[in-house]
Amino acid sequence: MASVSSAGPSPGMSADGAKVNMAFIAAIVAVATIGGFMFGYDSGVINGTQEGLEKAFSLSKLGTGLNVGAILLGCAAGAFAAGRLADVWGRRTVMIVAALLFLVSALGTGASHTSLVFIAFRLIGGLGVGAASVLCPVYISEVTPANIRGRLSSVQQIMIITGLTGAFVANYILAHTAGSSTAPFWLGLPAWRWMFWMQTIPAAIFFFSLLSIPESPRYLVAKGKEAEAEKILSRLFGAGQGAGKVAEIRASLATDHHKPKLADLLDPTTKKVRLIVWAGLILAVFQQLVGINIVFYYGSVLWQSVGFTEDDSLKINILSGALSILACLATIAVIDKIGRKPLLLIGSAGMAVTLGILTWCFSTATTVDGSLHLAAGTGPIALFAANAYVVFFNLSWGPVMWVMLGEMFPNQMRGSALAVAGFAQWIANFAISVSFPALAAISLPMTYGFYAVSALVSYFLVQKLVHETRGKELEAMEG
Questions:
Q1: Considering the domain boundaries, does residue 258 fall inside one?
Q2: Burial of 166 (0-12, 13-18, 19+ CB in 10 A)
């Protein structure tokens, strides 16, 4: 099917002018993006609980890093497994499993009384986060029209940030009401435990909502369930559209009709990893090398280390979350008009500059009684640069990376490519997050300098390797 023009058809029409069922599409996208909310909430809930964890488990700085970062190893395993299982069990089924993992993790982490048990339950939560991170965007891309796919897929990032912000708000309210994150709250238990238990509410909503949405029609065609896929596609894209869509999807699969497998990532002629897979890996890894999750995982600790109170630092987290949502809304407004690649380039340039400013600000800090103190007048500059950095990230790499991973790969290899890219993304996330406490203790300017250089390098890699996908049907993606 031909790609749309820059203007494109109206949101209620598909690329060929057929009327689509926007109410149905919006409903199932809304359900799928709750996975993004859970992704954000489970990732962000740790921010504000570190003091409680350190006291409860007598943790060293390295121990804190391992307890905070443990979820990320689970995320890597969950992303890889989900990408592969999605081709076997289906996108919806694996998301249902992820919702159950969120519930188990929320209950277990709040009840943990040893570091080992806590890490085990965070790993379980990580399996759910990893699965949601790769399957929610790909599910959305597989049930939406090409001309508005970018906008609807970008909602995933808004929900991730909403989940992060929701965790920050809940943590702030609990800590503020109790007096601190370590003070007794309901049932005489410390507030930080209730921060984890609050997650059971959205996890339950996600589970029951998933029971109401259909399976991805592209998965169904790959499994030979064409009649079921045609029924869903007709409901999505209009009566009479289903059969044609099924034919297009069938034609985009391997000519020998073999089941999707990891070997599809290799060029059949050269036996080397396809260039499109390398492009996906670069997007996945560099989204983490710019250090964004340091702001989310260690934000409260970082701001306290440079002179802000715990109460103020939690408020700063909420401000960062609100700015992130506004930036994502801007992305939704323009991503299907100007494309994915320009946004990535703008983000890389903006992050390189703002991270450079943060590096300079932290270079002026002095250590007094073991605590960092910024030079006079640099605190507001650091705060402005940090929030500007967050805006640039969420205007670009935050939503666009997930949009592109969900749409850039051909149907035959999408599950396998997502498995590999998702695994790489979370391993990079783990490396950056776990190393931060130790690296920051050595040199905070050096640490932020690395993030700045990574942002600069990402600009040139995007220019060289990333190709625009705006307006292209999934069946037209080339490997």
A1: yes
A2: buried
Distance, in Å, from the CA atom of 111 to the CA atom of 114, rounded to the nearest integer, reads: 9
Measure the CA–CA gap between 4 and 476, rounded to whole angstroms.
Answer: 12
CATH at 113: 1.20.1250.20
Query: Does some domain include residue 7?
Result: no
Residue 334 in this model has a pLDDT that exceeds 70: yes
Contacts of 469 (CB under 8 A, 6+ apart): 340, 404, 407, 408, 477
Q: How far apart are the first and last CA of the chain?
A: 17
- Structural domain contains residue 106: yes
**Helix, strand, coil content of the chain in percent (nearest 5):** 75, 5, 25
CB half-sphere exposure, 111, CA atoms < 13 A: 8
Per-residue pLDDT, 110: 93
List, for residues 67-110, the tens digit of each pLDDT value. 877 888 899 999 999 988 998 999 999 999 999 999 999 999 99
8 A C-beta contact, residue 180 and residue 309:
no
For residues 63 and 216, what is the distance between their CA atoms, to the nearest angstrom? 41
C-alpha to C-alpha distances, 460 to 346, 349, 352, nearest whole angstrom: 12, 10, 12
Token pair 């409260």: residue: 300
Structural domain boundaries, residue 324: 22-213+253-476
Report CA dihedral (347, 351, 354, 355) to the nearest 10 degrees. 180
268's CB contacts (< 8 A; 6+ apart) are none
pLDDT in tens, 368-396: 666 667 777 787 888 888 889 989 999 99
The secondary structure of residue 421, as a DSSP letter, is: H
CB-CB contact of 424 with 281 (8 Å): yes
Q: CA geometry: angle at 138 spanning 40 and 121, to 5°?
A: 40
pLDDT of residue 3: 37
Between CA 155 and CA 368 the distance in angstroms is 44
State the amino acid at position 378 in one-letter form.
T
Is residue 37 within 8 Å of residue 164, measured between CB atoms? no
Residue 445 and residue 379: Cα distance in Å, rounded? Answer: 14
- Taking the model in full, what pTM does it have? 0.79
Nearest to residue 349, comparing CAs of 459, 453, 433, 443?
Answer: 459
Q: Answer whether residue 381 is part of any domain.
A: yes
Q: Give the number of domains in the chain.
A: 1
Average pLDDT over residues 22-40: 91
